[in-house]
Predict the structure.
Amino acid sequence: MPELPPLPAPEAQDRILHDLVPLPEVWVSLEEALGFGLTTDVPARRTQPPWDNSAMDGYALRSADAARAPITLDVVGVVHAGDQPTRAVGPGEAVRIMTGAPMPPGADAVVMQERTRAIPGQGLGQVEVQEPVTLRQNVRDAGEDARSGEVLLPAGTVLGIPELALLAGQGMTSVRVPRRPRVAILATGDELCRPDEEPAGRIVDTNSVAIALGVRRAGGIPQVLGIARDRPDDVERLIGTALDHDVVLTSAGASVGEHDHVRPALERLGVAMDFWRVAIRPGKPLAFGRHGSTRVFALPGNPTSSLVTFELFVRPALLRLVGRRSPLPLPVQARSAVDLRKHNGLAHFIRVVLTWRDGDPWADPLPTQTSGAVRSAVSATHLLHFPMDAMSVRRGDRVELLPLAWGP
């Protein structure tokens, strides 16, 4: 059967994501939930803040008394944050109030301290309000953050730091999110050795290290299974031990070379392959398939190709499994800092550094774009998408950039 042409990247992403659903839910601490999507609506347990409070240090008063200024009012009390008011504010009166303190009964506005002048006198003295005050000025309403019983965060919300702080303010210490995906990682090749081994003419397997870190950053639990040697039985054995995971990631050995044993091993193990190649550079020899509920990715062996395909195809799949409805990176626009040329037929994803010059974002390609060296990815902040049907980009042209998650 003739080899099918490589898939365009968007079609490959669609095939990977179209039937992926979040993994079963578990209760986890708020700290562990960062970056995950909620599996259910979360209702508010408390009204926050529970009472109207001051947004400024100043004086609580009746706005009708200070509709015109200047006006002098009697100071009849002081309320600090954490205190409760001891008396109401009547006509011609004001209460000294601090930021966050509850509003005293009768007061409906706060004038900030900088717009007043204290007048010493009997008791707490008086205050001169130097500018007109409007109703509810500098007042935070009760329930501004949340009202008891309302949906605080709907299902599918990605839990960032503000969302988790909001839950903590409700007295919550745990939340329901999808469990972490278990991800098996293995490399193939007689030329590879572990980082803790003396190379002795071999190449250190950096792909397993980089992929494991990417899995962890995307919310997964990586399990590095090791290196399969260039023997069909060894490749099949190691992949077979991985198929009880949620995701399997292999690197190298999935092309058509004499020692590329991944493809026949996957077929013998019953993995239903969806596609074998994607129309991109770097990363064309990317394969994807399924074994029951397990997703299997065969990544390229070149280190930067492996990193790029992980970012474009594997990371979105992992983010979908942990509850993100929109897992693909959001593109940004910039100007190309150089002229670019290529042949028609493959989309190029060029490692660039995004900088600002004269009020505009500019994309500066890294000095080398080789796929065989990890250093060609160091310091990159984005991938410049050079579309498959385009053949040239001129300096200053608008280009689409995809943010990278592999940086610091």
About this structure: Residues 303-321 form the longest helix (19 residues).
